[in-house]
Amino acid sequence: MENSPPKASVTRSGQDEGKSILKESESGKLKESQTDETDKVSKPIGYSGLCLKCKQMIGTNNYIKIGDRVWHGDHFECSICNKNLASIGFFEDKDRILCKECFGDIVSPKCGECGKPCIEKYVTASARSYHIECFTCKNCHAELNGKPFNLHNSHPHCMDCISNILSIKCFKCDKPILPNNEYVESMNKQYHSSCFRCSICSADLSGQGKYYIKEGNPCCSHHK
Length: 224
Hints:
Elements: E1 10-12, E2 20-24, E3 36-37, E4 62-66, E5 69-72, E6 91-93, E7 96-98, H1 100-107, E8 121-125, E9 128-130, E10 149-152, E11 155-158, H2 159-166, E12 168-169, E13 176-177, E14 182-186, E15 189-192, E16 212-214, E17 217-219
């Protein structure tokens, strides 16, 4: 009685390649504070409204105006730490005016590699954020922004390094079976699906479903 031939099962190797997205925070932009001085002659006292902090008329003092909000220059402070921002710039988060440090601590996502805040431009990949300069292969340090990658032990790796770390070798061509490659396993050996062919006539076996083993090698039904 003839034994039933094994069946070829095509498997997809490893994880899908990751994709990174370059983002620019809408609120995460350092803005310059512009201090204006009212003209006592041409503009009446108090024309610019009440200071948002002290509730007093601006009068002829220096002031800073953002939209319909206005402050005395020395009252233009970070909403969290009260640092004066009139000369160092500021960040906006909804109704809050923040210094760079508070914006980074409270609003900005943290870099998945160095742990520091990602302000302004940064990369998101696999639900994590990275500084552009931090988004590199953990093994060879190649830049990964805009390039395919995979995570290993929670760190991004380029495809060459991830192949050397994770991949299995094709029994036929001895080249790595890369993540996301299709492969066939037969007799505890792995083959690229394109390498899984009859050892005698080179007929493609990966899509045949059934094949035979002859002298330890796969072969088609014509050479069983």
